[in-house]
Amino acid sequence: MKIGRNDPCPCGSGKKYKRCCSINLERHEFEYRRQRQIEEGLVARLFEFASAVLAVHAIEDAWFEFNGDVEVDLIPPDDPMNMVFMPWFFFNWVFEFDAYINPEIDDRPADRLDEDPLDTTIAELFLATYDEDLTPDERSFLKNSIQTPFTFCEVLEVKPGSGMKLRDLLRERVYDIVEHSASQSLKRGEILYCAPTEFQEVTSNLATSPYSLRAISKVDVLNFRKELLGEIDQSTLSDDDLLEFEDDFRGLYLDLFTEMFAPPHIVNTDGDDLIEHKVYFDLDSVEEAFDKLKELAGKDQDVLIEQPTFKGKRIIAAEIPWLGCTIEAQKKHGGPILLGLLNLENDQLIAEVNSTDRAEQIKLLVEERLGEHARYKTTLISPMEGAIEELWDQRLNTGALEAGPSGSFSGSEDFDPDSPELHALLNKLAEEHWTRWYDDPVPALNDMTPREAATTPEGRDLLESLLLYYESESKRRGDDNFNPDVAAMRRELGME
Questions:
Q1: Do residues 254 and 68 touch, judged by C-beta distance below 8 A?
Q2: For the chain: N or C, fewer Cβ within 10 A?
Q3: Strand 173-178 vs strand 191-199: parallel, antiparallel, or unpaired?
Q4: Given a cut of 80, is residue 349 above it in pLDDT?
Q5: Contact 3, 14 (CB under 8 A)
Q6: Residue (of 276, 362, 355, 284) closest to 320 by Cα position
């Protein structure tokens, strides 16, 4: 809500806004713009300086080091990751002086330093070289920026075009950041890899990752922090700790970022890749096959007697659901899972399943039960419909659901994603899933159930991030059968 200059100040001082917080806001805004001008001018000079005094391979080596020495392409000039890499390159990249200084330059920067710099940064060399030519503000900005620790910050509040409130997940601090561009698109709960710094009473980010992490990445950051604290036998992390383990934290960000944009990996409840298989057999007798395979339906086999199609007293067509799974999976999903569907007709058996492993299993089961009375012909393999893959990918972010192997989810020609039958099925699956959700372990909650997480401060913190993620995903996807009722979840879990 926009505050008028003559309105009462929201801080509760009793003064008009223009006589109170507006003054500080305008002063901070002026100082922020002045700092950005100083920074822009220095960055251009730092790049020119680095190009002149460093060997040509310096920036390439720094880029590989930044990416954890993995196989990456040379840095493209328009790569969005430059928003993080270039500040790190200038202010944080510690390099061996003799290994990277261009031997052909006449005026070596080391000649102007009090001590021989075995390890230094570009900004330190620049400051020593041009100290007398810099303004006091430029000199202060450089000293303040050198070796600024990078960290992970959770977005607590966003003021689009103005700034944001961030919580440092590694150092457990809160910052009121003055910022213009990133605050336009960020959402509460998202996680930034950034370098907060305070200069002239204004807190801003020296560098901000171009891609924010999803709110559910908080559990990975906090677990990584907990493991590190255990290794170094400390209860908190200092600025020096963040600098010492900078490569590890940057590696975590790059891993989470890569995982976030990786192609979806769709699996079924067995953890197998979700790929539709149709296994074909020729039969001597549909009736005989029905009699020997109906036990695959488990407790439901008795009701199958009413379902076959008869010609006289002879069964000529039938459909058998293949039910089963481990006892643990049955407890989690409230009963047996549909593993496949067997269609018997015209002296032929077609078994539809959704993974390679299940295709092999049903092939062995049919051969064991029917022997020479069933002759394997072929297996047709086709990927699931792209729309369905995208649908299931959303569910797998926070807990797998089983994509059924029936015709409703197959890649058959008569597949209709807009059919009322499919939407009714999806609504039913969604209702069942979100009803179970409260009592199912969730990876984003450190494998606690939502009800368990709601009983501890740490669990509630993770649960809040998960609910923010659900809200964000629901808005992004619009009208979706599986969108949860987050308000109802908050009421049920006491998170209001």
A1: yes
A2: N
A3: unpaired
A4: yes
A5: no
A6: 362
Tens digit of each residue's pLDDT (9 = 90 or more) over 61-71? 999 899 886 66
Amino acid (1-letter code) at residue 243 = L
CA distance 358 to 404: 13
Strand-strand pairing, 374-383 and 348-353: unpaired
Distance CA 285, CA 311 (A): 13
Task: Report which of 47, 197, 32 is spatially closest to residue 123, judged by C-alpha positions.
Answer: 47
Q: At residue 104, what is the residue type?
A: E
> What would the mean pLDDT of 109-118 be, rounded to a whole number?
53
Kindly report whether the global pTM for this prediction surpasses the value 0.85.
no
The Cα 150–Cα 196 span in angstroms is 7
| Distant-in-sequence, close-in-space partners of 170: CB < 8 Å, separation ≥ 6 | 151, 152, 221, 225, 237, 242, 249
Determine how β-strand 275-283 pairs with β-strand 309-311. unpaired
* Helix, strand or coil, per DSSP, at residue 289: helix
The average confidence (pLDDT) of the chain is 81
How deeply is 402 buried, as exposed, middle or buried, from its count of CB atoms within 10 A (0-12, 13-18, 19+)? buried
Q: Which residue has the higher pLDDT, 461 or 269?
A: 461
Distance between CA atoms of residues 125 and 46, nearest Å: 10
Rounded Cα–Cα distance for residues 11 and 231 (Å)? 43
More confident residue, 131 or 246: 246
Please state, in angstroms and rounded to a whole number, the distance separating the CA atoms of residues 77 and 59: 12
Whether residue 192 contacts residue 155, with contact meaning beta carbons closer than 8 Å, is answered with yes
Provide the β-strand partners of residue 154: 167, 191
**DSSP alpha helix (H) spans, 103-165:** 122-130, 136-145
Give the number of residues written for the chain: 496
Q: Which two tokens stand for residue 131?
A: 């100290």
Per-residue confidence (pLDDT) for residue 224, from 0 to 100: 96
- For the chain, how far is it from start to end, CA to CA, in angstroms? 22
Half-sphere exposure at residue 393, Cβ-oriented, CA atoms within 13 angstroms: 15
CA distance 286 to 252: 57
> Which long-range contacts link 6-14 to residues 24+ away (Cβ below 8 Å)?
none
| Cα angle 230-232-235, degrees, rounded to a multiple of 5 | 65
CA pair distance 48, 130, nearest whole angstrom: 13
Q: At what angle do helices 82-91 and 21-53 cross, to 10 degrees?
A: 70
